[in-house]
Amino acid sequence: MPHQAVPSVLQKIVDTKRQELVRAKQQQSWHDLEQIAATNRDDIRDFAGSLRKAGIRVIAEVKKASPSKGIIAPNFDAVATAVGYEQAGAACLSVLTDTDYFQGSDAYLLQVRQAVSLPVLRKDFMIEPYHILQSRALGADCILLIMACLSDAQVAELHELALKLGMSVLIECHDEIEVERALRLPAHRQNVYGVNNRNLHNFDVSLDTTLRLKTLFPQDSLLVTESGIHSAEDVKLMLGHDIHAFLIGEQFMKTGDAGSALAKLLAQSQQSA
Ligand SMILES: O=P(O)(O)OC[C@@H](O)[C@@H](O)c1c[nH]c2ccccc12
To answer: Indole-3-glycerol phosphate synthase domain spans which residues (predicted)?
Structure first.
């Protein structure tokens, strides 16, 4: 891989997260978060368990914008979207909380989690234990760990804390080396392995990434294919390779009626699947 002279978007996002953390810690101490997380302790939904159920399992994403596409949903309404997804048969939800690059918000996570009974992933770029505890305080049932922006030591620490707090962990990989690193984490039934079809450094999308990397995972791993799923054909392709869990955002959000788009995709994918 050529050396990247210009910092990739991913690197920029991580720099932003470092700055955000300084401010966040001034507003809410670790101790504050611990207290909130303690009151939420019994209110946790089994994200990994929901994905393990039979059928096509979709993690439907509440996403207003992205660095690659700009504004995806001009009339964005987080709660209405989430309720629509639940009614349409989503297995789980994903809520973007990053503000600067995805126009998400922690408030959306809180609101969505209250409005539905599905397990909810906090989709953000987590780099410190503070993020993990903060996620649980916000009600998250699952957190995201992006291998591409974390060292082995960081991933191990964040993974351990998330499990200790009772959450599932979506461990995201986008190449062979990241899969190898991810598989060195302790096995746990709350581990969910995501293969991101979007290269986070240059935004290229290829569903082949999932098919290529799938062979590296032990058979009983809980695998999610992420990004760039647009059609029932895409879903059927994955089902044909024994992949039953999908993380899908843009395709639903861009229609303006995300729930209906999910219902339609599920119906079409079940036909002679
Ligand atoms: O909108 P899409 O192409 O359906 O993709 C959803 C999801 O996979 C994508 O938003 C995503 C996957 N991993 C991420 C990490 C950070 C931010 C966003 C993402």
So the answer is: 10-264
Neighbours of 204 (CB within 10 A): 12
Query: Is residue 210 within 8 Å of 195, Cβ to Cβ?
Result: yes
* Residue of 62, 127, 229, 247 with the most ligand 1 atoms within 8 Å of its CB, for mutation: 247
Residue-level pLDDT at 272: 62
Residue 67 alpha carbon to ligand 1 centre in Å = 11
pLDDT at 17: 98
Query: What pLDDT score does 7 carry?
Result: 64
pLDDT of residue 6: 54
Phi, psi of 121 (to 5 degrees): -90, 130
Judge if ipTM > 0.90.
yes
Mutate to test the pocket of ligand 1, among 66, 76, 99, 252 (most ligand atoms within 8 A of CB): 66
Report CA(188)–ligand 1 centroid distance (Å): 24
pLDDT of residue 9: 87
> Which of the residues in the chain have pLDDT under 50?
1-5, 273
Taking CA atoms, 247 is separated from 33, 54, 91, 159, in Å, by: 28, 16, 10, 20
* Residues whose beta carbon lies within 6 Å of some atom of ligand 1: 61, 63, 123, 146, 172, 196, 226-229, 247-251
